Amino acid sequence: MREAAFVKQNKAKWIAFEKAITLNSKINPDQLADDYIQLTNDLAYAQTYYPDSKTLQYLNSLASQAHQKIYKNKKESKNRLVSFWKDEFPLFFYQHHRMLFYSFLLFAVATAIGVISAVNDDSFVRLILGDSYVNETINNIEKGDPTAIYKSGSEIGTFLGITINNIRVAFLAYAFGVITSVGTAYVLFSNGVMLGAFFTFFYNRDLLFEASKNIWLHGTIEISVIVIAGCAGMVMGNSILFPKTYSRKVSFLKGAKDGLKIVVSTIPFFIIAGFIEGFITRYSNMPVWLALTIIFLSLILIIYYYIIYPIILHKTNAKKLYTT
Q1: Rounded to whole angstroms, how far apart are CA atoms 124 and 253?
Q2: Angle at the Cα of 196 (from 192 to 202), degrees rounded to 5?
Q3: Consecutive sets of 10 residues in the chain, 324 residues long: mean pLDDT of each?
Q4: Helix 208-241 / helix 288-303 crossing angle, nearest 10 deg
Q5: What is the pLDDT of residue 44?
Q6: Any transmembrane segments, and where (predicted)?
Q7: CA gyration radius for the chain?
Q8: DSSP assignment string, 147-198
C-alpha cells in the first residue's frame, strides 16, 4: 500500500485517538483500548514499509504518549516471566477471545461427532482408540478397575511423559496453522472425535460417571488447554487467510508471533495437568467430593485466567486511559 493511501485510510482514526488522550475526550474506555491496539498495529506496519517517513515519526510519538498515560503509575516487575503471565499475556489474549470461542466450538462439534459415531457403530471406538487400548481397558473393567491404565508406570515417569506429550500436541496444533487454519482445525477435530469416542466407550458399559470422575481430574486442564493451543494455531492460520491492510508476509509474521505467545502460555497448565495425572489420577478410590473439588477448581482456574482475568485487565487499562 502506498503511504498516501495508508495515511488517508487511517488519518481520521489517529486524529480521534490523539484528541482522546490529550483532551481526555469522553470516549468509551473499551473503544479507547481497542484503538490503542490498532495504533500499535499501524505503527508496526509503518516501521516495515515507511521506515524513514514522517508518518512513522508521528505514530511513534502518538504511541509513546498513549503508553505513558496508561502505564505511568505502573511499577514494572523485576521478574519478566511473572510479568508475562500476570499482566502482559492476559491483556494481550483479550483480543483473541473470539478465536478461542471458534476453537472451542469446533472441538465441541467434533466431540459430538465422536459420540454419535461411537453410539451407532461399536467398531468406531476401536478404529479411533486402537485395539490395544480397548482390549486392555476391557480387561481392567472385568477386574473391577476401569481406569487402572492410569496406574501403570512410576509417578514421576508418568508425570514427565504425559507433560512432554501434551506440550508436543499443543505445539503441533499451533504449528499446523502454518498451512492455514485448516491444519489446526484437523488437529482439534481429531482430538475432539477421540474424546467423544472415549467417553462413549465407558457410557456403553454404564461406567461413564466412574470413568469421568477419574479422567477429568487431569482432563479438565488438559483438554481445555488443547483448545487454547488450537486458538493459537488458528490465529496464525487466519493471519495468512485474512491479512487485512498488511501484506501477507507481514500479517503471517505477526500472526505467528501472537500464536506462539498463546501456546507458550499453556506450558504451566500442561505441567499442572501432568502432575495431576502422574500423582493423583491413579488414586481412583478417592472420595467423590474430593475428585469433584479438584475438577471444578481446575475448570475455574482455566476460565478465570483465559477469559475472566483478561476482561478485568482490559477494562482496568481502558479506565486508566480514559481517566488519566
Answers
A1: 40
A2: 150
A3: 81 78 60 74 80 80 70 56 85 92 97 95 90 90 82 79 89 90 93 94 91 90 95 93 79 90 93 89 86 95 96 79 54
A4: 10
A5: 79
A6: 99-119, 156-176, 183-203, 215-241, 262-280, 286-307
A7: 24
A8: TGGGGSS-HHHHHHHHHHHHHHHHHHHHHGGGG-HHHHHHHHHHHHHHHHHH
Q: Angle at CA 11, nearest 5°, toward 7 and 15? A: 145
How far apart are the two ends of the chain, measured CA to CA in Å?
35
Q: How far apart are CA 128 and CA 117, in angstroms?
A: 10
For residue 132, how many C-alpha atoms fall within 13 Å in the half-sphere facing its CB? 0
- What does the pLDDT read at residue 294? 94
Cα separation, 59 vs 196, whole angstroms: 50
Q: What is the pLDDT of residue 180?
A: 83
Cell of 313: 485487565
Alpha-helical (H) ranges within the chain are 3-23, 29-49, 54-71, 80-83, 89-93, 97-120, 123-129, 131-142, 155-175, 181-203, 208-241, 248-265, 267-279, 288-303, 309-323
Task: Give how far the C-alpha of residue 280 lies from the chain's centroid of Cα atoms, to the nearest Å.
Answer: 25
Q: What CA–CA distance (Å, rounded) separates 198 from 212?
A: 10
CB–CB of 70/156 below 8 Å? no
pTM, 2 dp: 0.75
263's CB contacts (< 8 A; 6+ apart) are 170, 171, 173, 174, 228, 229, 232, 233
Query: How far is Cα 193 from Cα 191, in angstroms, rounded to an integer?
Result: 6
Q: Which of 199, 207, 184, 210 is nearest to 117 (CA)?
A: 199
Spatial separation of the C-alpha atoms in residues 103 and 81, rounded to whole Å: 26
Helix (H, G, I), strand (E, B) or coil at 282: coil
